[in-house]
Design brief:
This protein is an alpha/beta fold and about 250 residues long. About 50% of the residues lie in helices and about 10% in strands. It has 10 helices and 7 strands. It is elongated.
Length: about 250
């Protein structure tokens, strides 16, 4: 299923949709169907243009993030059995001495905030290579190693939820009910909560990385009209979240 999902998304991301339309338009032109060929080619052009602007990414991203603004403050978070951080914020190549922080690195920072506020004694890092990536940053933030558990096997959100459930049950065998503070990017939180709702864990949102809101307040007026590679990348990210959420219904 993991590879099927990867393949499906490969063909459904905004660039591939635009590219496919362009190929179809070109093929129609070669077959002397100029009218249809021009129409499809123009649709491809405008699709790629719009998806590459801040307009598309902001319109898709803010509705994903808005429901979780109220959970952003550490003070409003309840105590839980564990803080669970979904991977993707930190990466590290074998040749590197230190991990590289990307846009989602706020997840690690927020987890450290929650831990220092005594919201939970344990932090669970869920995702490939978190042992050599996110864990290093957590230790630098002052979290003792004995309070960090790493799941190095989860490849997607579904596996994050199931493998985390196994870890929690193994750590607290005497308990019948479990609660976690779920830390991930705000735009990913809705889909993550959907996956965790199918487990025995009560997942409480603890969002970070409000990318669409940040883009909205930092973008200049021309960013809403001029295309950029960053724009289409974030439009694709938000489209993936919407498709993933709709697919679960």
């Amino acid at each position: 299923m993991f590879y099927i999902n990867k393949l499906v998304w490969f063909f459904m991301n905004p660039f591939m949709i635009g590219f496919t339309l362009a190929v179809i338009g070109f093929a129609l032109l070669l077959k002397n169907k100029k009218k249809f060929g021009i129409v499809v080619s123009m649709i491809s052009f405008f699709w790629l243009w719009i998806c590459s602007t801040s307009t598309a990414s902001v319109l898709l991203g803010i509705p994903l993030e808005k429901p979780f603004l109220q959970y952003e403050k550490v003070e409003s978070s309840p105590e839980a059995d564990a803080i669970v951080v979904l991977g993707g914020g930190i990466s590290r190549a074998k040749e590197m001495s230190f991990p590289d922080a990307n846009d989602a690195a706020d997840r690690i920072w927020h987890a450290a905030r929650l831990w220092k506020a005594n919201k939970a004694k344990t932090i669970i890092l869920s995702g490939i290579d978190e042992e050599i990536a996110a864990k290093v940053l957590l230790l630098d933030f002052g979290v003792p190693e004995e309070h960090v558990i790493v799941d190095n096997f989860s490849r997607n959100t579904y596996e994050n939820s199931r493998f985390t459930e196994n870890i929690i049950k193994e750590k607290y065998p005497e308990k019948k009910e479990y609660s976690i503070l779920l830390v991930t990017s705000a735009w990913h939180m809705g889909r993550a909560l959907g996956n965790f709702s199918k487990t025995s864990l009560k997942a409480i949102p603890a969002p970070s990385d409000f990318k669409a809101y940040t883009s909205y307040y930092l973008s200049e007026w021309y960013d809403y009209f001029l295309p950029s590679p960053v724009g289409i990348a974030w439009t694709g990210t938000f489209m993936k979240e919407w498709i993933g959420r709709l697919a679960r219904k």
